[in-house]
Specification:
A three-stranded antiparallel beta sheet has the order 1-2-3. It is mainly α. The longest helix is centred in the middle third of the chain and has 31 residues. Helix 1 runs parallel beside helix 5, helix 3 packs across helix 4 and helix 4 packs across helix 6. The protein has 18 helices and three strands.
Length: 515
């Protein structure tokens, strides 16, 4: 793929995301789901009204900025309400989230490209992210989760850019990585898992490097000629043409024709990591609190954190008795319990859009308006399978040879695709596994930080299929892509809150647990 078509592809993905997020943004003239908190908090900053928030304040600052800018734009004010504490158009407290969410597919694509330098992988990753439902829903309302994700992903992208540069340019990108990670944590505490993923990948790179160095030193002291012969054998196993596509006979072909930036992680020492990805994020997180603490002087910096922790510890157990949409972490990957952010019925499509109020009597509602925080089912399910494939690939290429042959196939022999698999699997685990110990009620939107790496996993798998010399695999890649796109279109009405007949609604609710 040429650079021109790559740019056209990424711009097209962005425009698709932008159009879907802004289309009918004022559709419901009310506060949808947690807009009752975040939109109101954003407005409270503008009216200088003190309040307690159970999360760090960055996303509410941004929503408040969006409200202020939107209020000074002389259009899109046909409908207004006073639910935030001031007379505001829904567009004013939603538009900046919609714009921000439109960039998430681009950042995912940028990470995919920086990991592999493969343009098709980047475009597929961006397209799949643009075709997910929960990211679309979260971007269309004044909610906070997209800010955790975009800042966390920017931190990873800046880190990868730093690894691809040297000296001052590396320091420049590392500073921005630290700022982004600090902003992610400054949105919600679980943004910390993006930063922990970066540390875990760095530790893994050092472990691989040290084991490889140790195994090489043993070979040096036993048989230098064997080491050289081994090197020639390893090189002969991976031959690549000029396009970077490997020519050996396995169905998937990791290429050694170029190095992954992740291999440069060992160029960062512990002091650099602690400064750029420790002190800087902590500093950014601290200064984020200054405007809030100046507004609400009830608690100081330490006390407000104690109150936030107390709030979450007393939120209740993870069961439907606490909240009907509580969903433990193990329910997220298979999407067994999505949640409705908005549900109203009307007698006909010509009626004014229902806002709030009791539901109509049974049988009277012939039109359903539902906004469902639900991912693209096939994107998630195929992504789960791709993630398991990557885990299997890591086990087969790293763990099994180490156990059977009592040696490690060192850093120099790890392919670009093995590094990609390591990066995706580690970051997925870093963003999912901490929730295992959480006993409070949690919801499917808490999975958003982890599922972006599922999108990278299935994009990598499809890219490998499309690049394969086997026709069956190329057909498989096209089929998976078509199914994901078709599923996105099929479930789009419940992402955008479009009117549905009762039969049309039931057709999309495949399982009772989805309702």
């Amino acid at each position: 793929m040429t650079k021109k078509w790559f740019r056209i592809g990424m711009v097209s993905v962005f425009l698709l995301s932008l159009a879907l997020r802004f289309w009918g943004l004022e559709r419901f003239n009310t506060l949808v789901f947690d807009e009752v908190y975040f939109a109101k908090f954003g407005n409270d900053y503008l009216t200088r009204t003190p309040f307690f928030n159970a999360h760090p304040p960055l996303s509410q600052y941004i929503i408040g900025i969006g409200i202020w800018i939107g209020s000074h734009i002389p259009f899109w004010h046909d409908t207004v309400n006073g639910l935030t504490g001031s007379m505001r158009s829904p567009w004013t407290y939603r538009w900046l989230n919609a714009l921000t969410g439109s960039f998430i597919p681009l950042v995912v694509g940028a990470i995919a490209y920086q990991l592999s330098y493969r343009r098709t992988f980047a475009i597929i990753a961006g397209l799949f992210t643009a075709c997910d439902g929960i990211f679309l829903v979260e971007s269309r309302y004044a909610l906070s989760n997209i800010y955790i994700v975009i800042f966390g992903l920017l931190g990873h992208w800046f880190l990868l850019l730093a690894l691809d540069n040297q000296n001052r340019r590396r320091s420049f990108w590392l500073v921005f990585a630290g700022i982004a990670f600090g902003a992610s944590v400054g949105t919600k505490w679980n943004g910390l898992w993006f930063l922990s993923g970066a540390y875990l990948v760095w530790i893994a790179a050092w472990v691989i490097h040290l084991i490889h160095s140790f195994s090489n030193s043993k070979l040096f002291f036993t048989s230098p000629s064997l080491e050289k012969a081994g090197g020639r054998i390893q090189e002969s196993e991976f031959r690549s043409d000029n396009s970077g596509v490997s020519t050996y006979s396995l169905p998937f072909s990791p290429s050694l024709s170029s190095e992954s930036p992740l291999q440069n992680l060992t160029q960062l020492n512990i002091f650099q990591m602690l400064f750029y990805l420790g002190i800087i994020p902590a500093f950014i997180y601290s200064i984020i609190w200054i405007p809030h603490l100046q507004l609400d002087k009830t608690y100081g910096f330490i006390a407000v954190h104690q109150q936030i922790l107390k709030f979450h510890l007393h939120l209740g157990g993870n069961s439907s008795d606490v909240h009907p949409y509580c969903a433990a972490w193990y329910k997220w990957p298979l999407m067994t319990r999505p949640m409705a952010y908005y549900y109203q019925t009307a007698e006909s499509i010509t009626e004014p859009l229902p806002v709030m109020g009791p539901p109509l009597p049974a049988g009277a509602g012939q039109v359903i308006y539902d906004v469902h925080a639900m991912g693209n089912p096939f994107l998630w399910w195929f992504g789960d399978a791709a993630m398991l494939f990557l885990v299997g690939m890591l086990v087969s290429q790293i763990i099994i040879p180490w156990v059977k042959e009592k040696r490690f196939s060192g850093r120099a022999t790890l392919s670009v695709d093995t590094w990609i698999a390591l990066y995706i699997v580690i970051n997925y685990a870093a963003n999912l596994l901490p929730w295992v110990e959480v006993t409070r009620c949690v919801f499917i939107y808490h999975y958003m930080c982890a599922v972006v790496f599922v999108f990278l996993a299935i994009a990598w798998f499809v890219d490998q299929c499309l690049r394969s010399y086997y026709q069956q695999l190329r057909v498989l890649g096209v089929t998976i892509t078509f199914i994901i796109l078709a599923a996105f279109i099929f479930w789009m009405p419940i992402y955008l809150g479009l009117p549905l007949s009762p039969d049309g609604y039931k057709l999309r609710m495949w399982f009772n647990s989805w309702i």
